[in-house]
Amino acid sequence: MLAKELAYYRAHFREAVQKDGVICLECGSIFKYLPGHLCKHNLSSEEYKAKWGYNRTTPLERLSTHRKKRRNAIAMKLWTLTPPDAHRKATRARQGRGLPYRPERRLVDTEAARARIAAGFRRKEQRHAPGPKDGQKLSKEDRKVLTLRNRGLWPSEIAALYHLEEEAPAIEIRAHVVKRNLLQDGVAEVARPFDTCRNSHLERVIGRGAGR
To answer: How many domains does the chain have?
Structure first.
């Protein structure tokens, strides 16, 4: 590994733990399991994590292996072997002792805070989104497009059936807006479109529309 690449991973140490291997920030070599290599640098796992800013619980092994171990532990239900009061004892023993400062912990907390803020903004936008009760009325043509879209017809087929002036993308946008407004107000339930629409299905839909 080049010195420039090693300098990048030292500045972005969380990216050194990858799916296929872990990059040693001391020499730039890649290993599946890093603790077995650290003895060459006269470092233990705890010393290495403290030096480069990792949390104490961060595994120094490739992500694919860590995820496989996690799935196996869940399948074996290893948590049932833990004493029922183990968490309470650990919490009591840690009271009054602050955790050591680690840059990775600060980055994780910052990302979690940003995610909470973004989720709050999304909820606020959804809460104030306009619905049909806010003065928006569905025209007869909009309801016709929405009905055919729910039955599985694609926008191009709807345009061909009713000879609408809009192109297929415009019909898709109209159907999406109408569905969103109705779902927000709990008026309609949108069905998933079919993968294919044969001529017999189109004729059956046309017959239903003509009957109405």
So the answer is: 2
Which residues, at least 6 apart from 32, have a Cβ–Cβ distance to it below 8 Å?
21, 22, 61, 62, 65
47 lies in some domain = yes
- Residue 161 host element (H or E): helix 155-162
Q: Is residue 70 part of a domain?
A: no
One-letter amino acid for residue 100 of the chain: P
* Residue 135: other Cβ atoms inside 10 A: 7
**Structural domain that includes position 45:** 3-65
Q: How far apart are CA 100 and CA 54, in angstroms?
A: 11
Average pLDDT over residues 178-187: 54
User: pLDDT tens across 101-143, in order?
Assistant: 889 988 888 888 888 887 776 666 665 555 544 445 667 777 7
CA–CA gap between residue 185 and residue 170 (Å, rounded): 23
Whole-angstrom Cα distance, residue 41 to residue 112?
A: 34
pTM of the model: 0.52
Determine the residue type at 9: Y
